[in-house]
Design a protein that fits this description.
This protein is of the alpha/beta class and 631 residues long. The chain is built from 21 helices and 13 strands. It is extended and about 100 Å long. The structure holds adenosine-5'-diphosphate (ADP), magnesium ion and zinc ion (ZN).
């Protein structure tokens, strides 16, 4: 390619740029000139509401239009003179409220950047054009491949995944079985005129195995697996995303039967017309192209599109219409049985000591996803390897669980006696509050050994997998979260930043109660939040679905709720101050305290030696399920 023919274009661009910047400079300086005497007159007639003098330009805001305008901008030959002449009048009018505001911005000192900056910009533009052109000449243009989809064809690590690798997701697998059947044997379905879904949406939180399931479908059916992430479609250049979509479907048709897997589809599939500023046309084009492609392939081509998201509510409705992603499969975090099965799958390639009871581990990890469990076993294996143990013990599992839920123990961190005392009082505050709240889960363990970000931790034991909290339970959680801060205030006479995470969480809970779950009388059973977390593109239009007045009430109610919880907590801790101090003394001496020992103190019994400080205590024969920590 002959780059010389671009030189006129470049020159043209440079000239255009210069003209534009010159013109914009003129525009901003343009003023409707007005004689000085007339300006003074406006002041004397008390016409001026406010004004700003910037360098030697004055901008006046008028009460009534003069020559049809209420804003007048004009030059002052001698701004200093103007100021000294009129200062008295300004002050007088300002005091009377005639002149609402006025300001003198000092003259801007001349700066070299005023000259250098535009030069730099022009230079940068030229440089970019130059690189692109040179790249073209050498045939290594980075933009040449822009329109191609960054698809991963086949399974990344080359390992075939089957349904056996996906543990505990029985219902999900059952629903997907049908798709496998179709991919294996399409005639069976098409002969009797059955319509097979084009697209299936896997909906669920991160780490629950959506990607794994999609790969397993391809593996079971023995078809090609093309995967791409939604964010790969999103580029700043208009048209690139759309051409990537086209390319993706072309590739799939070539290797059909195949599964196309679009991860994080919400990155391209957001509701249209909700973008903020630039780039949203590009997204719409990409989405439109996706819709066109999904309509475009026949039922006989053997292509099925699977997509994953955890925000189906923000997807464009057109994506969910029949013939597109008209089927949703919910992929949830596993239950106890599922967790045990997942642990078994991931334990297969690890050497476990006889002490390891996966059933117990499953019971004490409510709320963990498949990815969390796989991570747990891996952490335990790393701990075992670091200690040069040939097998992985239950002690490793325990340490790994504590590490995951509260960060690794930092036994070596130097803590002064004062730090330790503060931490002990803080944690004891949480624990004593929890003990005295009827709906709160019992304390499992307390420690002042620093872990991760936090200086100490109080673990408690959720009753079950259920996430359906009642109003009372939520309120009592707020009370227990405040326990640390209240104890500091009551018994240390000063408060620390150690409670900031607690306060964040308490505030969030209170906000949810008031504005999301309709749990406050004043505001009624109304949700003022639109679909949960803030999503700029959409919330921009919908946040104002309630009035300023309601917003004020929400703030007041949140505040009132927290204040009530604070007082409640203060009452509990004051009533139990002697026991709290016993807990503090115990922690200072032994650093870690089991739930059993804690209860003994609270009930005024003799405190025995800890039988064990394992996170798995009480789960061996388990009726109850668990998780979580709290700093
Ligand atoms: P998602 O796509 O939903 O975020 P992934 O499919 O990427 O989750 O899961 C991440 C990892 O977690 C998988 O590679 C796998 O090791 C593990 N995992 C998740 N769910 C399961 C499951 N049901 N059975 C076995 N392993 C699982
Ligand atoms: Mg994934
Ligand atoms: Zn705390």
């Amino acid at each position: 390619m002959n780059y010389r023919k671009f030189i006129p274009t470049i020159l043209y661009l440079v000239v255009l740029f210069l003209i534009l910047s010159w013109a914009s400079g003129l525009m901003s300086g343009s003023s409707s000139s007005m004689p000085y005497s007339q300006v003074i007159e406006l002041f004397q007639q008390e016409q001026v509401k406010s004004f700003v003098v910037n360098d030697n330009t004055i901008t006046l805001e008028l009460r009534e239009p003069v020559n049809g305008r209420t804003q007048i901008k004009t030059n002052l030959a001698q701004p200093e003179l103007f100021r000294s002449d009129m200062e008295e009048l300004f002050q007088e009018q300002h005091e009377k409220g005639i002149l609402e505001s006025y300001d003198f911005i000092p003259a801007k000192s001349f700066s070299v950047y005023d000259i250098i900056l535009p030069l730099l910009i022009v230079g940068a533009v030229l440089l970019i054009l130059w690189t692109v052109l040179m790249g073209r000449m050498n045939g290594s243009n980075p933009m040449a491949n822009f329109g191609k989809a960054r698809t991963v064809l086949g399974v990344p690590d080359g390992k075939k995944v089957t349904f056996d690798d996906v543990a505990g997701a029985d219902e999900e697998k059952e629903e997907l079985e049908e798709i496998v059947d179709f991919l294996r044997n399409p005639q069976k379905f098409t002969q009797i005129g059955a319509r097979i879904p084009h697209g299936i949406l896997l909906v669920g939180p991160p780490g629950t195995g959506k990607t794994l399931l999609a790969r397993a479908v391809a593996g079971e059916a023995g078809v090609q697996f093309l995967s791409i992430s939604g964010s790969d479609f999103v580029e700043m250049y208009v048209g690139v995303g759309a051409s990537r979509v086209r390319d993706l479907f072309e590739q799939a048709k070539k290797v059909a039967p195949a599964i196309i897997f679009i991860d994080e589809i919400d990155a391209v599939g957001r509701k249209r017309g909700t973008g903020l500023g630039g780039g949203h046309d590009e997204k719409e084009q990409t989405l439109n192209q996706l819709l066109v492609e999904m309509d475009g392939f026949g039922h006989t081509e053997g292509i099925i599109v699977l997509a994953a998201t955890n925000r189906p509510d923000i997807l464009d409705p057109a994506l969910l219409r029949p013939g597109r992603f008209d089927r949703q499969i919910q992929v949830n975090a596993p239950d106890v049985k599922g967790r045990e099965e997942i642990l078994k799958v991931h334990a297969k390639d690890k050497k476990l000591d006889a002490s390891v009871n996966l059933k117990t581990v499953a019971r004490s990890t409510a709320g963990f996803t498949g990815a969390d469990l796989s991570n747990l076993l891996n952490e335990a294996a790393i701990l075992a390897a670091r200690a040069d143990r040939p097998v992985l013990t239950m002690e490793d599992m325990n340490e790994a669980l504590m590490k995951i839920t509260a960060g690794p123990a930092k036994k070596s961190r130097v803590q002064t006696r004062k730090d330790l005392k503060e931490t002990a009082v803080h944690e004891a505050g949480h624990a004593v509050a929890m003990y005295n709240l009827p709906t709160h889960d019992p304390v499992r363990q307390i420690t002042i050994v620093p872990r991760g970000q936090s200086l100490g931790a109080t673990w408690y034991l959720p009753k079950d997998d259920s996430s359906n909290l009642t109003r009372n339970e939520m309120y009592e959680q707020i009370v227990s979260l405040l326990g640390g801060r209240v104890a500091e205030a009551l018994f240390l006479g000063d408060i620390s930043v150690g409670a900031s995470n607690d306060i964040d969480r308490a505030t969030k809970l209170a906000k949810d109660m008031v504005a999301r779950y309709g749990m406050c009388e004043k505001l009624g059973t109304v949700s003022y939040l639109d679909g949960g977390e803030v999503f700029i593109g959409r919330d921009y239009q919908t946040t104002k679905s309630y009035s300023e007045k309601v917003a004020g009430t929400i703030d007041d109610e949140v505040r009132a709720l927290i204040d009530k919880a604070y007082d409640h907590c203060k009452q509990i801790l004051t009533d139990n101050s002697d026991k709290l101090h016993k807990v503090v003394d115990f922690l200072l001496e032994k650093e870690t305290m089991t739930g059993e020992q804690f209860e003994a103190i609270m009930q005024g019994r003799e405190v025995g030696d800890a039988s064990s400080t394992s996170m798995f205590d009480g789960f061996e024969d388990g009726k109850e399920d668990p998780k979580a920590t709290e700093e």
